[in-house]
Amino acid sequence: MPARIGTFRQLEILVAVAETGGIAAAAERLHLSQPTVSMQMRKLADTIGAPLYDLSGRRLALTHAGELVLEHAREIFDCTDRLEMALNQLQGMHKGRLSLGIVSSAEYFAPHLLGPFYRRYPSIEVTLNVGNRAELTERLRNNLDDLYIFGFPPQDLDVDITQLGENHLVVIAPKTHSLATARSLKWQDIANELFIVREEGAGIRAAVEYHLEKLGYSLRHQLTIASNEGIKHAVLARMGLAIVPSLCLDEGDHRELVQLPVAGFPLLDHWNLVFRRGKTFSVVAESCRTYLLEEGRAMYQEATPYWEEHHRPKLPTR
User: Fold this and answer.
1) DSSP per residue over the chain, as a string?
2) Is the pLDDT of residue 254 over 80?
3) Tens digits of per-residue pLDDT, 111-120?
4) For residues 166 and 247, is the Cβ–Cβ distance under 8 A?
């Protein structure tokens, strides 16, 4: 069997083709020519004795044999990564690779949590893969990263979920809005407003819908924008209201936007550290997990009021 599964390079090319969705994109990622990638894929298919992918126009789809080889190729690379890190530890060197998946809304604070860890171990090569909830869920399903930070973790996977800290979801409006100076509001006061929301698959959208449903509320009129920054600009442009994490609001927003004092808000959600249950961690990944659950979580809980009041302040309630 070892002779039949091809070289490590061929397996690496297969993984790149599967993850990028095509020969050209895989060639660009690996700094190879497209003919080289195609040739190596053909050689791997010949040694396996079965086609690895089908082409329909420009769309590439792995065959069942291709999916099997891909699954085991990833296990092989996970094993070699663990071996490399174990050898580094044996030699007294704390270095290696760490891959983290982070939902886009968490990028406002995650680097602050990881900074001290990276400075402690500067030889570690850290990769942050940022995406929406659907993209990160797919990466988690395929076990592509060591650890993940979710606001609203997937419920259909066998995962370990540990809270890192609170996530406050607030209603924002431009200062020129007719309700901007209200001292107290009920949901009924804003129920007919147009709300700017994240795209389908985004964790913040899932969290907002979940909490509103528990309160018996719903968003009747919606406009979708696929980024928190885009949503804030849409609110500034008086296109509608929005419900966003308070940590995504900065000093510039503080001057132009207000937090509406709606009963039941802020909605209380949480940021969570997530990983596949039963996952075998590398030395580096285990060190990062321990750091985030101990020092990182304590740092977040201590720093959140500061971020919200200074760097990422809560908007003034009018």
Assistant:
1) -TTTS--HHHHHHHHHHHHHTSHHHHHHHHT--HHHHHHHHHHHHHHHTS--EEEETTEEEE-HHHHHHHHHHHHHHHHHHHHHHHHHHHTT---EEEEEEEEGGGGGTHHHHHHHHHHHSTTEEEEEEEE-HHHHHHHHHTT-SSEEEESS--SSS-EEEEEEEEEEEEEEEETTSTTTT-S-B-HHHHTTSEEEEPPTT-HHHHHHHHHHHHHT---SEEEE-SSHHHHHHHHHTTS-EEEEEGGG--HHHHHHEEE--BTT-SEEEEEEEEEETT----HHHHHHHHHIIIIIHHHHHHHHHHIIIIISPPPPB-
2) no
3) 888 989 988 8
4) no
In this predicted structure, the answer to whether residue 303 has a pLDDT above a threshold of 70 is no
β-strands 159-174, 241-245 pairing = antiparallel
Q: Which residues of 79-103 are buried (b: 16+ CB within 10 A; e: fewer)?
A: eebbebbeebbeeeeebbebbbbbb
Find tokens 């509608």 and name the residue.
240
> What is the pTM for the complete model shown?
0.71
Contact yes or no for 139/186 (Cβ under 8 A): no
Q: Is 70 exceeded by the pLDDT of residue 6?
A: no
